[in-house]
Design goal:
By secondary structure, the chain is an alpha+beta fold. The chain is built from 4 helices and 13 strands. The longest helix has 17 residues, at 2-18.
Length: 226
């Protein structure tokens, strides 16, 4: 009887080691999205701001305008008429158009307004953010991989993502691996793990549905053979 028990124990041990699932690595992180800070090319006072936090914006949509927008728009329209009549050059027309364009802020992507930095009537400097727009087509989870396991992570490697409150799992792929190690942030995992040197890794979500929201906690499973 003892011999059979011993044989069974060894068989189970070998079976566990051969199980491919035992090689999988599971990490915790938070769902994030790519953010775009939108600002004007020139300084001025905000006259219109058509973007409340949570609002959906379309690529090319005018999000805000500055105080000289209306005047520059009239100048462009006048120059356009002169150009049609032969009274202005192509360069004059392009210059007027750029002046008008500098007085407005447009969305570079289809996205959602995450933060409204300024309000109507406030002065803004050139290049300073007026609103922050998130790209809902670019959702990803940042995880921290210990230096002893980073050599098992590769660009394009497949992953499975699970989010708190959802029974469905999602497919993803590694699309960023930090080139330098860092200490794990204090808000991640246990106190012991926070002193470990780790590499930041981003795992992009494939075909993310609209109901996925940034900020939700996630578990990321990566198979070294995947």
């Amino acid at each position: 009887m003892k011999i059979w028990i011993g044989f069974l124990f060894v068989a189970l041990l070998v079976s566990g080691c051969a199980n491919p699932d035992s090689a999988r690595m599971i990490f915790s992180g938070t769902l994030e999205l790519t953010e775009h800070s939108l600002g004007a090319k020139v300084a001025g006072r905000l006259i219109t701001l058509n973007a409340d936090e949570g609002a959906v914006v379309q690529k090319g949509q005018v999000v805000a305008t500055l105080d000289r927008y209306e005047q520059n728009k009239k100048d462009f329209e006048r120059m356009e008429n002169l150009f049609k009549q032969g009274g202005a050059t192509q360069k004059d027309l392009e210059h007027a158009f750029l002046n008008m364009q500098d007085q407005q802020i447009t969305a570079p992507i289809d996205g959602v307004v995450l933060v409204k930095v300024h309000e109507v009537g406030e002065m803004v400097s050139a290049g300073s953010p007026v609103v922050v727009v998130g790209d809902r087509k670019s959702l990803w989870v940042r995880i921290y991989v210990p230096e002893g396991r980073i050599n098992k992570i590769k660009m394009g490697q497949g992953a499975e993502l699970e989010f708190d409150g959802l029974s469905q799992s999602f497919k993803g792929r590694v699309n960023f691996i930090a080139s330098r190690a860092e200490f794990t942030p204090r808000n991640v995992q246990t106190a012991e793990e926070r002193v470990t040197q780790t590499f930041a890794v981003k795992v992009a979500v494939d075909e993310a549905p609209d109901y996925l929201r940034p900020g939700v906690a996630a578990d990321v499973t990566i198979d070294p053979k995947g």
